[in-house]
Amino acid sequence: MDKIFIKDLVARGIIGINDWERENPQEILINITLFCDTRKAGEQDAIEHSVNYRTIAKKAQAHAETAARLTVEALAEDIARLCLDEPNVQKVMVRVEKPGAVRFARSVGVEIERSRT
């Protein structure tokens, strides 16, 4: 299975369980790996046979900035569902991180893998 990836997509949104986290948007870092068959797109040089990563990135970023989720787990599930709504995506890996959320750690987060089946 081929992979299309979106690396280090930055969004600013409300995420977290603490009162102070619910008041101001925080940086959210998103990484997405889309599993699909890109052979036909490569042979015919036609995007309709692949997945438009720009469309996915815009949807993921817009959702992260408006969802106001409590957990990174819930946001990752949301983004995975958005990706699997695309017809050519068979499987997706989504990583959602909150940079600077834990002292002395660059980032914390969750990575999930979901598929159509």
Describe this entry's structure for a reader.
The chain has 117 residues and is of the alpha+beta class. Helix content is 28%, strand content 35%. It has helices at 39-44, 53-66, 72-84, and strands at residues 2-13, 26-36, 91-99, 107-115. A four-stranded antiparallel β-sheet has the order 1-2-3-4, covered by helices on one side. Helix 2 packs antiparallel against helix 3 (72-84). The two termini are 15 Å apart. The model has no long low-confidence stretch (mean pLDDT 96).
The largest sheet, given as strand count, sense and whether it forms a barrel, is: 4 strands, antiparallel
Number of helices: 3
In terms of structural class, how would the helical and strand content be classed? alpha+beta
Give the amount of beta strand, in percent: 35-45%
Q: Report the principal-axis shape.
A: elongated
SSE pattern, N- to C-terminal: EEHHHEE
Mean pLDDT: 96
Percentage of residues in helical conformation: 25-40%
Low confidence ranges: none
Put the structure in a nutshell.
The chain has 117 residues and is α+β, with helices and mostly antiparallel strands. The chain is 28% helix and 35% strand.
Features:
four-stranded antiparallel beta sheet, 4 strands, elongated
Give the secondary structure arrangement, pairings included.
Blueprint: E1 2-13, E2 26-36, H1 39-44, H2 53-66, H3 72-84, E3 91-99, E4 107-115
Antiparallel strand pairs: 1-2, 2-3, 3-4
